[in-house]
What we know:
This protein is α/β, with parallel strands linked by helices. It has 9 helices and 13 strands.
Amino acid sequence: MVVLSQMRRSGGFWLRLDGVNILQDPGPGCLVMVHKHRFKPAALDAIILSHRHIDHSNDVNVITEAMTGGGFQFRGCLIVPGDCLNNDPVVLQYVRPFTEITEIKEGMKIEIGNIKVTFPIRNRHPVETYGAIYEFSSGRLGYIPDTEYFPELALAYKGVDFLVLNVVRMKTDKKVRHLNIDEAKELINEIRPKKAVLTHFGLQVLKASPSVQAKMVSEKTGVRVIAATDGMTLDLEEKENLEKWI
Ligand SMILES: [Zn+2]
């Protein structure tokens, strides 16, 4: 409902790691937000979908066109679960020759320029869903997208420096297969990143104030936790910058 009413934007997030540009989960409005924030889609090296649900994949075709100069310049790559390509595909047939397409498998490791990306574990969600760990020169960033809680997640993401979690609910409804705030707290406590970012809020979390919830998780775990806002920028090399200042 938050996406459909656009109470929060739904374009996914843009990573710029060691000069490599990756767009994760281009949901509805992604192309508009990319231009609003003055990013250049023609500079993208990769587009990654965690899963086929429309709030994560709606703009995948138009962003692929934008990455490849309207399909005239074969470049970059598109990395997606198999069910984004097969029956009722979200990646249109005519767009596929524009770029290199890779199907995600559990445990797969790939390199995009100097960045290593691992897909450590398959999530538990109604469609095929994978998070990722991005390894770059100054750290590792983990992304846990839509999933119900299961204990193996903590082991799969252990040791990441930064962690992005999709937290949709305050209380679990078994039908929707999403993390609630207590489960997110549990995962952050076990994974213990330097910094965690909560995002993908449903109505329940918005009503309970994401920043208040982030503060609560921070106090209970001792980990720095922030709630994402539309257009937020996060400096993943903050530590290096701090060292420079010191
Ligand atoms: Zn989903």
